[in-house]
Structure prediction request, 460 residues.
Amino acid sequence: MAETVQFPNIFVSGKVKGVAGTLQINKTGFAWKNSLGHKVNVLATELKKAFWFHVGPCCRIALTLKTGSFVRFEGLNTRDRETISAYIASNFKVQLENKELATKGWNWGKTQVENKILSFLSDNKVCFEVPLGDLSSVKSDKNDVILQFVQDETTKTIPELMVEMKLYVPPDLNAKSSSSSPKVVEEGEEPEEEEEEEELPTASENFKNLLLTHTTIRSGSSSSPLITSIPAINFFTPRGRLDLELYKTSFVFRGKGKDYQAPYSSILALSFLEISANNYLVVSLDPPIRQGNTSYQHLIASLKRSDQYNIEIAVDVAADEQKEDLEATMEGGPETILKIIKSITRKPLLKNGSFQSDAQEKCVRSSYKVNDGHLFPMEKYLFFVSKVPMMIAYDSIKLVSVHRLSKVNQSFDLKLQLKDDPAPITFSSIQKTESRNLIKFLLLMMMTMMMELLLLPRNA
Prediction:
């Protein structure tokens, strides 16, 4: 048998690598590479099981690894099975097992969780599989369980991507609380005080908890240990009190019925916006995290200036570059949280700029459509803090115009025409007393950006 067997025009299944490549199998394992330079390698020592599927006109080989994850290669031919089976049996001591897929088209059946893979079975055949390592959150809502998938740098080039799956879990009609049976009271007897009914978890909650025990959403990952946890942070978007957990390579927000997880690589920048009573800590993401049909590109924490924090840090598990500004115990106001997040994520902090409003604030109050909020003119961006936050770079603005500024009106509108969007953005109901400071600052920032572009080298 040849030392290496090779198969062209092979795809890797799942959320990665939408371009075909070449699959090679040699004595060290499986190696796949495409024309974009993307690679997937599976060492022979990692291989636990191998399965062969017929998928439409082509075939697929699914490799289950000892770590619990799996890799699938598609685009193989029926005649390739014998070659691959003989090679891995001889060199890896692994048998290639046949596995049938369900073809009845049923949308109900049983589930099975094994080796960190959620399988949907119909008539004891696999309908489809979901690798639990690809989940960013698992939530339950009445009788539904909602699975949301990780969006990271590997998904940016894919035009269409599944980001959420909702499963209906029928309620368990036999489940009753411990005190649900009625009690008979004889005549003349005093009724006993009723005990509070013990609330039992629903079938959907049980299924959600089962999935969470097989994922890293609750406890981070063994390769990404917990560095610190900050409880009960008041978030403006998404609204609610959430616990923040910072791991070595990712962060998790947890709340009642809410779990958000994202890698640090998805963080574009941090912002710390100051106002008289509160500070807004902003984490800007690309790709954004999702909850149902709502996506959150900017996570905004509302921190009172008077709040004090005492946070324990597991400095020993942090990477060397993360330890620079960390101490075992860190105390202080909202700036302490900013310092911790900035140190661990290693992401830049956007500068606020020198703008001062008529009320000596770093922002002006305004509205965008029906959303009331605060408009912060920063050094290179306009940031609008509201239920629908917005960040606008000055170099993306084509035209700034002022409307309804007169002696009669007590407020005015600021209209921005962007270079790549025909629809203007209008911030309304800005106090007239802010017009001079705001317009002067915006013109200065836009001229500064223009001068920076003119001073760039011609070949830059």
